[in-house]
Amino acid sequence: MRGCYKKSKQHTMHNNESSIANWKFPGFKPKKLRQKKKADAERQHQKLMAQLTAQREQNRRAHEKQLAAQAQAHQRQLAAIQASRSQPVQVVKKRGCSVM
What we know:
Elements: H1 18-24, H2 31-86, E1 92-94, E2 97-99
Antiparallel strand pairs: 1-2
């Protein structure tokens, strides 16, 4: 059997011992390790998404508060303008020119 490659018993997987397998087949990962990494990545993703949604909600609340404050200030300005318009205009005579 010259030139024929036969996989020896030593390189087959036993109880997920990956040291030989990694040497023999680079990039090979045992199933349990893959599942663990996948679960960890999923947990990390969930945590990030929760943080992101919380941040988004906080930003939305802050923006709404800011808009409400702006609207209130605008209403106050309008009320001040209305009040100033409703008062009778006083004309003060000063050297022949009218000053309002």
